[in-house]
Design goal:
- It contains eleven helices and no strands.
- By secondary structure, the chain is mainly α.
- The two termini are about 45 Å apart.
Length: about 280
Amino acid sequence: MTIGGGLAAALSATCLVLAASGILVLPGWRHPDHSALADAGWHRSLRSWEGIRLAFVLLIVAAGAQVGVPWLALAPFAALVPSLMARERAGVKRDQARRDVTRALAATHATLRSGAPLVEALRQGRDAAGAALARRPFDRALREFTLGAPLDEALRAASALETDERTRVALATLALGVGERLSVERIAALVGAVAERSTFDDRLDEEVRARSSGAQTQVRLLAVVVPGLAGYLALTMPGIAETLGGPLGRELLLPAALALETAGIFLSRRFVAEALR
């Protein structure tokens, strides 16, 4: 406890000195969870988010103190859990928005085929997208166009700010067609090709999820079976119970097992998410 307090005091003093000198404020620095919180629908300030993180860490540390687990073993893990949950929620929202973007492209293509201009077709496509995250790139492009920017530059600007790779490629392709001054019929064919590719990617995503669902289920089952097996062995074998209840188990074995199981679950989902991109 004395060593931990000394390190915390030294770190706090160092941060105060760096902040006062201006070294700590890096140009262009953004919070690591900024994009994840925005995509997950978090509309409050980052200070509120860090307050929730601090409250969660204090709660976990207090619960660990009741069973004898030191705070140094729980605090880093507890500090990462809110970020992991925010990124998980953002991933779900992005998957839904990706499918809605496909619907928006199909609506844009249908409007162009009816003879409407491209700007009106983009507005119809934006209205066809259900999720706010899917409407965001169309809103950005239309807002820049309304403010006086050329449509191709507005589409490129919206594409550069988009986090989803497929949406970014679709907007960049559409901007290329507008920049080449193609006719409405050619642009309609281009949008149709982009919509067909997006539909194919959505079907491929469904197949990847179907093939990987069994492996993810096995990971979750192992995450439940292993602690149950450890509890059973602790009840039936006094030596194991003594080891897990001693300093070695409380300070190293149990926190490490919890961290490894949580990391395994999130890594399995991360691999699937990377395959879907």
